[in-house]
UniProtKB/TrEMBL annotation:
It catalyses: Fe-coproporphyrin III + 2 H(+) = coproporphyrin III + Fe(2+). Keywords: Cytoplasm, Heme biosynthesis, Iron, Lyase, Metal-binding, Porphyrin biosynthesis. Fe-coproporphyrin III binds at S66, Y135. Involved in coproporphyrin-dependent heme b biosynthesis. Catalyzes the insertion of ferrous iron into coproporphyrin III to form Fe-coproporphyrin III. Its main location: cytoplasm. Residues 372-395 are annotated as: Disordered. This is Coproporphyrin III ferrochelatase. It comes from the Bacteria. Residues 373-395 have a biased composition (Low complexity). It is found in: Cytoplasm. The lineage of its organism: Bacteria, Bacillati, Actinomycetota, Actinomycetes, Micrococcales. SUPFAM superfamilies: Chelatase. Its EC number is 4.99.1.9.
Amino acid sequence: MSRVSEETTAGASGLGYDAILLASFGGPEGQDDVIPFLRNVTAGRGIPDERLEEVATHYRANGGVSPINEQNRDLLAALEGEIAGRDWHLPLYWGNRNWDPYLPETLQQMHDDGHRRVLMLVTSAYAGYSSCCQYREDIDRGLEKTGLTGSLEIVKIPQFFHDRAFIAPFQEALATGIRDVRAQLAAKGEPDAQPKIVFVTHSIPTAIAEAQGPDHVKEEYGTDAYSAQHEAVARTLMRTVPEAAGLEHTLVFQSRSGAPSTPWLEPDINDAIEEYAAAGTRAVVVMPIGFVSDHMEVKWDLDTEARDTAAELDLAFHRAPTPGTHAAFVSGLVDIVAGQFAGARSPEQGTQEVPGKWGDICCVTGCRPRLTARSGSGRPAGADAGSPAPGSESR
Ligand SMILES: CC1=C(CCC(=O)O)c2cc3nc(cc4[nH]c(cc5[nH]c(cc1n2)c(C)c5CCC(=O)O)c(CCC(=O)O)c4C)C(CCC(=O)O)=C3C
Ligand SMILES: [Fe+2]
C-alpha cells in the first residue's frame, strides 16, 4: 500500500499536503501527435480503426491540436493565482493520462522536488469509469512505473459535479443561453416559441453505466449512477435559474464510439434534435454539463455536428460554455481544496448545490485502484468488491 507516515508527510506547507496535482486527459498539439495520442487513449480497448480515423479528422480539422492542453494551462494559471491569493505557497503540477506531460513524469518530478503527499484534482466532475476510476488506475500504474509506490502518496479529491464550483458557471450559462435563443427567435419572427433545454454528456456503454453503483443511488434515482448524476445536475439548473421556469428539458448523449453492435446510452444529441424539431420545437439551448472545458469533443460534436443539425432544421441554437476558467469555478475548486486541508470527512459539504446523498461514488465496479484510492473523504471509496479497501491502511 502507499503507506506514508504522517511524520514525513505533514507537509512543509503545514496544510497536510506538499503540492497539488492537476490531472487531465491530455490531447495532441500538432498533426504528428494525433495518431500516437489516439493509440494512447484506446490502448487495448478495441476501438475500431474506422472510428479512430473518424476521430482523427476532428483533430486534423483543428490543425491536429486539441484545445484541452491550452485550457489546462489557462486553468493552472488561474488556480495558481487563486492559491497565491490564499497564501498557501503550494506548488501546482500538471500531468495527463494520454499526452505530454504524462502522469508518470509528473509523479517523478514531484518526488524529485521533495514532495511526499499530494492532493490530486481531476478535470472531470462526475463519478464513472472514464471520469474517475481510470485516473486512479493510471496513478497506480504511474507509481509502479516510477518505483514510487509507497513513497509518494496521491490523495484524490472526490467528484465535484454537485458542488457550487461546477454548478454556478452553468447557472449563468443557462440564463445567457435562454436569453440568446429568445432573441434569435424574436429576430426570426417567432417570439412565442419556447426553447427546449438540452443537457448533454458523453455517452458510455450501457453495460458500464448499469454496472456502476452504488446501489443506494440506483434505487433512489431509478437509473444508473452515471445518468442519475447528470439528471440531478440538470434538475438543479432548471430549478435555480429563473429564466428556465416553465421550459422543458431533457438529457441526451454525444461522442459515442465503440462497436456499433454494443449499446451505448441514448439518445444521441443529433437524433434528439431531429425528433424535437419534428414535434414542433423551434429552439434549443445545448448545455454541455458532462464536461469542465470546451475540449475537442465539445467543439466537434456540439459546435460542428449538433449546430449543423439544428441549422438544417432551421432551429435557433445556442451552445453554452463549460466552466473552463470561470472565476466561480476556479475559486470554487480552490474552496474544495481548502475543504480537503480542513479534513473534510464527506464530499457533501456546505457548497453542495445538487441535493442528494451521493457519497463518494468514484465507481463501484470496473475500478481497480490497488494502491492510492483514498479519495480524501476519510473512508475507502469506490472499492471493488474483492480488492482490499483501498487506502484504508494508508493513514
Ligand atoms: C465519460 C467520458 C468523458 C467525460 C469525462 C472526462 O471529461 O474525462 C470523456 C472525456 C474525454 N474523452 C476524450 C477523448 C477521447 N475519448 C475516447 C473514447 C472514449 N471516451 C469515453 C468516455 C468519456 N470520455 C469512452 C467510454 C470511450 C470509448 C472507450 C475508451 O476508449 O475507453 C477517444 C477514442 C476515440 C473515440 O472512440 O472517440 C478519445 C480521443 C477527451 C479529450 C478531448 C480532446 O482531445 O480535447 C476527453 C476530455
Ligand atoms: Fe472520451
